[in-house]
Specification:
Layout (H helix, E strand, L loop, with lengths): L11 E3 L1 H7 L5 E4 L9 H8 L6 E4 L9 H7 L3 E6 L6 H8 L4 E4 L2 H13 L4 E3 L13 E4 L2 E6 L4 E12 L4 E2 L8 H4 L3 E12 L16 E4 L3
Parallel strand pairs: 1-12, 2-3, 2-9, 3-4, 4-5, 9-11, 11-12
Antiparallel strand pairs: 6-8, 7-8, 9-10
Helix pairs in contact: 1-2, 2-3
């Protein structure tokens, strides 16, 4: 089901291995998922097999040691993580304390709004979260009507590796439950977006679509 001259709206369907080979060393990669919920596990498994180095990974968390995002940390693909917490993956904590991986923390709402800002073409966001704490160190502080806000810049990536419950051949995406998490925001904020689909169909009902296909570049059908 590859794109044709007859219908340029069709997205290219590739294997998980082909998707992993698109990712280059020293690039910035957004990875969807809340722990393992809605994580593009098969693509990440293939990424581990390649000689990829010095990735900057943007994610809600680093999951668990032996699955999806956690494997990228464990097997040394990542030099820096921009995330909200690492408490479920002791390997991340150890590598952070040993100086092997740099970890940049943000409150969850702040991180997702930085990604939203990039996807929406905004110049940044103002948030009161973190005022009076170490989160404001080195940041521009803006005062509006007597209240202080931290200015946060937009956050984008070279690649986004995300998940979809059901994806049609045009790249439109449907989600079940909380699997949408960070996937929806990340789809708008990267130069190249690769989605792993549990199910691939010809055409979704427009009422089911959460991510329009215009944001998707490649589709990977998850194989068990």
């Amino acid at each position: 089901m590859r794109a044709t001259k007859e219908d340029k709206r069709l997205k290219e369907v590739i294997s998980a291995k082909e998707a992993a080979k698109l990712i280059k060393s020293n690039s910035t990669v957004m990875v969807g998922g809340f722990l393992s919920c809605g994580a593009p596990d098969k693509i990440l498994d293939e990424l581990v097999k390649l000689d990829i180095k010095n990735l900057t990974m943007i994610c809600n968390d680093t999951s668990f040691e032996d699955v999806d995002k956690g494997k990228l940390i464990k097997y040394g693909l990542v030099k820096k993580v921009i995330t909200t917490h690492i408490g479920t993956n002791p390997v991340t904590g150890k590598k952070m304390h040993d100086g092997e991986v740099e970890v940049e923390f943000y409150p969850m709402g702040t991180l997702v709004e930085k990604i939203h800002a990039k996807g929406s073409g905004l110049g940044g966001v103002l948030t009161p979260t973190g005022i009076g704490t170490i989160l404001e160190e080195g940041k521009k502080i803006v005062e509006i009507k007597g209240k202080k806000y931290i200015f946060e810049e937009p956050l984008g990536a070279d690649y986004a590796i995300i998940y979809g419950t059901k994806v049609d051949k045009y790249g439109n995406v449907k989600f079940e439950g909380t699997t949408r998490n960070f996937n929806t925001s990340m789809a708008t904020a990267a130069d190249t977006v690769i989605i792993q689909a549990d199910e691939l169909v010809d055409c979704l009902d427009p009422n089911e679509i959460v991510i329009p296909g215009i944001f998707i570049d490649y589709i990977v059908k998850r194989e068990n």
